[in-house]
Write a structure and sequence with these properties.
- There is one protein chain.
- The chain has 393 residues and is an alpha+beta fold.
- The chain has two domains: 134 residues, Creatinase/prolidase N-terminal domain (Creatine Amidinohydrolase, Chain A, domain 1), CATH 3.40.350; 250 residues, Creatine Amidinohydrolase (Alpha-Beta Complex).
- The strands form five sheets. A six-stranded mixed beta sheet has the order 4-3-2-1-5-6. Strands 7-8-9 form a three-stranded antiparallel beta sheet. A three-stranded antiparallel beta sheet has the order 12-15-16, with helices on both faces.
- Helix 3 links the parallel strand 3 and strand 4.
- Helix 7 runs antiparallel to helix 9 and helix 10 packs antiparallel against helix 11.
Amino acid sequence: MIPKQEYLERMVRLQEQVRGNDLDAFLVTAEESIYYLTGVTYVPLERPFFILVYPGEPAVLLVPALEQEHLRAAPNVGALHCYWDYPSPPGEGWAERLHDLLGAVRRLGVEPTLPQEIAVQLQGLGPCVLPLLEGLRLVKSPAEVEMLRQAAGYADMGMAKIMAASYPGVSEIEIFSQGRSVQMDIIKRTPFDPLTTSVLTATWPAPMSAMPHGVPSVGDRLAEGPHIGLSFMRVNGYGAECERTYFVAPPSAQMREMFATMRQARQRAFVLLKPGASCSEIDQAANGFLRDEGLGEYLLHRTGHGFGLGNHEGPWIAAGSSDVLAANMLVSVEPGIYMPGVGGFRHSDTVLITEDGYECLTTYPVELDDLTIGRGRAFTRLKGALVRRAVGL
């Protein structure tokens, strides 16, 4: 877990950023940002939460009345204020309370994710949009690295369960159901926080795997073609993923070629992973190689993204990115090839940037032979039939 002292240090670093940008105050509104600064979990729903950070005095927290006792656990906030509810009678809502707190502020910084509803209330102050917390979150502390390492272990566990449950004709509901046993292990072995833990085990079946953000149906079955298994975790606040392209029928010569080409693109990215490396150059090494191979029309996304409190955050390994890698950053490496009518080819790993290179925190096998499943597994088929019967499929 993250020690209390680290939350105090995070607030100090943010205050230094506020001072360095010549701000009177900085308004924190994003749920992940508030969690990053306080370690207190909550579900905002429609009710906004705020931390007002000053350069030289304790921060102020503004929350709905029903959350005030819960949020008193925040370790680095000087004063706690509340508003009635959402919506509130005139004079008792968050907007009035926030304006009261901002009375002496002339130069206010806000997060890029500030909701429009709040931005409208701040128009008179002409707020400065600054990604201060996004910058602070890029490099992880040793405690955060351990949390991410733990999440990556569960991502590997989820992928192992996906593969163990798969066979020719397996249904999506059988793959989805593997997440339950992963979650039970998290509950048994960690200080489980249900508000900051989520588990997804799924497989995008061919040819739908050519649409990486399509949504498979629970009744879909795996047959021929490249399927993409995804084990997507957030464990007690910290995210990781493991993805593998696999087969439940022997792949064709074309599929073998695309699988090998995807692996080559990944390797071209991996050899560049180290402190000081340009993220846009890493993307060019991977996706540029795929374009040179004549596959440009089958590319849909960047090479990778960062991990932390979010499963997708900076640094961005993308053509338009100005990010530069540093030790203790976490990234994915996942260039993909997506062929309509055939399917997708993508592996993804959660990778730690070290002082002199990288460490892959997810270690599930990546070779084609390990990812091609035969026709056995009678007991697995029986369990799958029971799962389908239980949900009426």
